[in-house]
Structures are given as C-alpha cells and as structure tokens.
C-alpha cells in the first residue's frame, strides 16, 4: 500500500487485489494512517504481542512491521476452537520519500503500535527570497 492520496476506487481495487492474490499478510495487522502537522502517524493493532516480539524496519522507503504471538496452553489442554492469531505476521507499507528515516520513532501501548514518521527538513516549505538580477533594468512609468 502506498501512502499517498489516491482515488477511493483505486484504494478499494488495491484492497481487493491483495485479497484475491493472497497478500493477506496485512489482515493480522490492521492500521490507520493520519497526517498530523509535519509527520505521518501509523497505528497498527498488535494485541497480545510482547514488545520484544515486535520488529520494525525502514529500508528503501519500505516500512516493515513484524509481530509474533504464541498461545500459552498447557500440555494437558485440548484446544477445541482457535480463531485468534498465532504465529508471526508482518505488514509492509511503502512510505513517501519525504519521510526523515533517521528520526522515525515507535511506541507500543495497550496493544497498539504507533509509528511516527517525521517530515524531512528538505521537504518542509521554505521561503525563497527573490533578488534583482545583475542585468535587469528598472522600467519607469
């Protein structure tokens, strides 16, 4: 998924394509993405995973989140139904090139991983001063 504004019908097409072609790895890590000031914030649901079992990497504009969760059943337990996620799950998200990769931070609380992707200084709006060129002539009215 590319984090850029797109036509909602294209976003739906992307979601359906991932489902049809088996890219269901994101199903275990639903996310929200918001822009707040000079940063993108990605919130991913990772319930039941220990913080030391969550991995986060950013390489070549590709953010990868992995999480592992194992059940805590005893040897004498007989599982009759198991619908909750077990094992390792991952999600990859392409981030814009204006993200400052050196200052990405993340925190984990209440089963939610929150990733802060700040805007790089070079991408921030800046005022450019316009000067008079050396060969310009003033026009008098």
Main sheet record: 4 strands, antiparallel
What is the chain-wise order of helices and strands? Answer: HEEEEEEE
Total of domains: 1
- Helix amount: under 10%
Contiguous uncertain segments of 5+ residues = 1-7, 20-26
CATH topology: Immunoglobulin-like
- Give the strand line-up of the largest sheet: 1-2-7-6
| CATH class annotation | Mainly Beta
Distance between the termini: 57 Å
The CATH architecture name reads Sandwich
Shape: rod-shaped
**Care to count the β-strands?**
7
From the helix content, strand content and strand pairing, which structural class follows?
Answer: mainly beta
Radius of gyration: 23 Å
- Strand residue content: 25-35%
Question: How confident overall, as mean pLDDT?
Answer: 81
Can you walk through the features of this model?
There is one protein chain. By secondary structure, the chain is mainly beta. It has one domain (about 10-70, about 80-120): Immunoglobulin-like. Helices cover about 10% and strands about 35% of the residues. The protein contains one helix and seven strands; from the N terminus they run αβββββββ. It has one helix at about 10-20; strands at about 30-35, 40-45, 55-60, 60-70, 85-95, 105-110, 110-120. The N and C termini lie far apart (about 55 Å).
Topology:
Elements: H1 8-20, E1 31-36, E2 39-45, E3 54-59, E4 62-69, E5 87-94, E6 105-109, E7 112-118
Antiparallel strand pairs: 1-2, 2-7, 3-4, 4-5, 6-7
Compact summary:
With 141 residues, the protein is mainly β.
Entry keywords:
141 residues, mainly beta, Immunoglobulin-like, 4-stranded antiparallel β-sheet, 3-stranded antiparallel β-sheet, 1 helix, rod-shaped, disordered N terminus
């Amino acid at each position: 998924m590319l984090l850029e504004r797109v036509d909602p019908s294209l976003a739906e097409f992307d979601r359906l394509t991932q489902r049809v072609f088996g890219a269901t790895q994101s199903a275990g890590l639903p996310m929200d993405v918001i822009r707040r000031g000079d940063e993108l914030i990605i919130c991913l649901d990772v319930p039941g995973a220990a913080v030391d079992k969550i991995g986060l990497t950013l390489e070549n504009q590709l953010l990868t989140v992995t999480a592992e969760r194992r059940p805590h059943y005893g040897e004498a337990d007989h599982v009759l139904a198991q619908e909750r996620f077990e094992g390792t799950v991952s999600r990859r998200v392409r981030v814009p090139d204006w993200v400052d990769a050196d200052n990405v931070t993340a925190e984990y609380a209440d089963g939610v991983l929150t990733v802060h992707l700040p805007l790089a200084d070079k991408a921030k709006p800046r005022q450019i001063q316009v000067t008079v060129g050396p060969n310009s002539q003033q026009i008098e009215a």
